[in-house]
Amino acid sequence: MNLAMGGYGIYVWSSFGITMGVLSINLFLSLLEQRRIKKIIRSQ
Amino acid sequence: MLFWFNQKFLSPKAFYATSVLLLPWLVGAFTVCFSYGLIAGLFIAPADYQQGDGFRIMYVHVPSALTAMMIYFVMAFSGILTLVFRLKIAAICMTCSARIGAWFTFLALVTGSIWGKPMWGTWWIWDARLTSVLILFFLYLGFIALQSVIVNPETRDRAGALIAIVGVINLPIIHYSVIWWNTLHQGPSITRFAAPAIAPEMLYPLLAMIAAFFLFYGVILILRMQNQILLREIKKT
Question: B43, B61, B107: best mutation site toward chain A, by most A Cβ within 10 Å?
C-alpha cells in the first residue's frame, strides 16, 4: 500500500486523523469527567 | 405494572448497575469491528475504479453521518418517553446524546468536505444533502444551548424533548435529499430493497465501521449517562 494513495493521501489520512482525534477526545473527556466525579464521591 | 418495570429496569440506579456489566462487552465489540474496518478499509479493499484511493474516506464519512442521524433519532425517541412517561433515564439519555451527536455531525461535515474537494473540486456547496446535514448540526447546537440556559431540570428536559421531537423531521429530509433534488452528492449505495451497489470486499469493512461507530456511541453514551447519574446523586446528598 502506497501511503500517497495515488495523490489522495492527504485527503484520506487527514480524514482518518480527524476521526481518530474526535473519537479520542470523546473518550478522553468522558473518562476524565468520570474520574473527577468519583474523586468528589470519595472525598465526601 | 409500568411503575414496577420502571423501578426494576429503567430507574437510574438499575441502569447504572446494568451499564457496568454491559460496558466491557461494548468496548470489546467496538475494538473488534473498528480494528477490522480500519485495516480492511485502508489496506485491503481495492481502489475504486473512478475515485481511486480517495473513496477510502467513505469508511469514516458514511459511518459518521449514519451515527449522527441515528443519535438524533434516539434523542427524539427519548424525548417522547420524557414527555409522555416522564422517564428520568430517557431525559438523561437525551441530554447525553446531544454532545456526542454534535461531534459525529461535525465529523460527517468535515470528512465530507475533505472528500468533496478532490472529487467535486470544492470544499462546500449549498446543495440539499450538505445543507440538511448542516441544519442537523445546528439542531444539536440549539439543543445544547437551550439545555445550558434553563436552570429548572423539569423545564429543561421538556424543552429539550420538544426540540428533539420537532427536529426529527429533518432526518427523512437528509435521507431522501439525494433522491428528491438534483445534488452533487451521490445516491445511496446501500438500500433496504435492492442489492448493494458496492463490491463485497468494499462493503464488509464499511459495515464493520458502521457497527464500530454505533458501538462507540453506545460506549460514550453509557460513560456520560453514568456521569450524569453520579452527579445527580451527589446533588441529592
Answer: B107
Residues (pLDDT < 50) of chain B are none
Domain interval for residue B59: 23-187+199-236
Query: What are the cell numbers at B63?
Result: 459511518
Q: In chain A, what are the domain boundaries?
A: 12-43
pLDDT tens track for B26-63 = 999 999 999 999 999 999 999 888 888 999 999 999 99
* Position B236, amino acid: K
Residue B192 belongs to a domain: no
**Continuous H helices in chain A:** 9-43
Instruction: Count how many Cα atoms sit within 13 Å of the Cα of residue B218 in the half-sphere of its side chain.
Output: 18
- The pTM assigned to this predicted structure is 0.92
Instruction: Mutation target for B interface from A1, A3, A13, A26: give the one with most B CBs within 10 A.
Output: A26
Instruction: State the sign of the Cα–Cα–Cα–Cα dihedral B204, B116, B74, B26.
Output: positive
